[in-house]
Amino acid sequence: MTQTAPPRRIARHDSMAAREIAIEHGVLTRQMAGLQRRVGEQLRACAQQVSALQDEVVHLRAQLIVSRTCMLWGLGMAGAARPTARRPRVAASSAEAASMAEASGVICQTGCVGHAHPWLEADGLCRRTGSACTQVDSNA
Q: Can you tell which superkingdom this protein's organism belongs to (predicted)?
């Protein structure tokens, strides 16, 4: 006795199952694509937020350095009490300009006069400021 081939209905059933699997695969693929897009957007937003926070940390560290330098050098807090909002500077106040002049004098006194004028050019100009050195005459 020989066996006969299975009826054609099984083949039709197999093709329907394959089509359903293909449809389900398409749906899952579209869902995965949407998920990848949303995760990518979240990663970009997170990276932007981290970058902004790193910028703020650098800004706050600079403010801390200025504040401590003013306090330790006895320059007052005029240079350190700046608002945290980043706005373009229009003009420096007279107190701030005076503090900056004091700070420049201290830098010149300790960094240049105290170390045999390493910033002094042969023509008498300061490498740091680009102007004529005023400390050479006072110590001569």
A: Bacteria
Residue 87 pLDDT level (bands cut at 50, 70, 90): very low
CA pair distance 99, 107, nearest whole angstrom: 12
What would the two tokens of residue 98 be? 């005076």
Residue for token digits 């801390």?
64
Whole-prediction pTM value?
0.40
Question: Measured in whole angstroms, how far is the alpha carbon of residue 54 from the centre of its chain?
Answer: 5
